[in-house]
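From the pipeline queue, job 12 of 40. The input is one protein chain; the requested action is below.

Action: predict structure.
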Amino acid sequence: MINSNFNNQARESVDQGHDAYRPSVELNKSRNGRSPLCEESHACISDIFSNGNNDNNDLLEKLIVSEGVTKIKRDFIVSEDEGFLLGGGGGGGRKGEVVTFSRKSRRNLMIKLAEMKSRFEFWQDFTFSDDVMQGLSVKKRAKFTSKVLKAFKLWLEREGYKIQGVWKREWRERITGILQGLYVPHFHMLYSIEGFSEKDYFSLALLFAKKWVEFTGTKNYEKALKVAQHRKSYRLINSRKQANVYVSDQKYISKNGEYISEESIGRNWGYIGKPEFAENETCYLNLSEMALLRRVLKKIVKKNKTKFRRMIVKKYSRFFVFIEKSTVYRILEWIVKNRMHRAVESVPF
């Protein structure tokens, strides 16, 4: 049985998506591959589930386990009368112009951050002065800011910084100045640089801010530099959860909802350098095992997520949770013990 501290520890490491995760379905042909997480001293949990315990001929569901997120998927389609069809899924249609930072785009960014091999260590904001935005349409503002971003990334590459990160473009309404009432973009960047200490990051942030202001071409250089190098424009990142809170953008959404433009605003986020992603683990669970997993997850997600908690326990539903890999494997270990001893009544939640 999992010790009595499991529930509290699990709650600290779990967050959840607000919607069911509905990616296109893929068939996985390598169910018997060995897991890199195995330890010599005992059978590896991921190996146990990679073979799939399918004594009752159940259709197997699968967990895609990454460093900070786990996705629950399946290789079959469930019809309304609970009929089943192997394979399936479809590709998306042609994408139109990007006019807002949609919930799907935000969710994809948060998932990618959770799939990184290691968390990013530093956050920095990059803005634009009024004079370089004045007289530009929304579409032209987007193109101009993309041009500055490209120049900055090329400079990083030329200077030889071993940087890995992501950038996010955010549109905010100006509340003062000559652009008052207009939406103007700025960038947030989360990054890590190999071999850098906390002191190194703070020193480099000042240089990055200076180069950014130069690339914007503003005539109000001193004022722009003061804003870019302000202490509130950069900070250390202490955890994956903190990074997700920053990029989730919830506190910046107005009472009327997210900013929606009538013109293209360009891409909302992308990569800096070549971030390393963790190697995902795939585990296959049968119906009874998934019932136990869903039961545990429902107990440890936040109680105010009522809709999500109901969806979790629904048979064959697809979703994702922001949860540390170590917590997932502790849950799977508990499921194995219950499977061996048939002690399902002893679930300590």
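Job complete. The radius of gyration is 23 Å.
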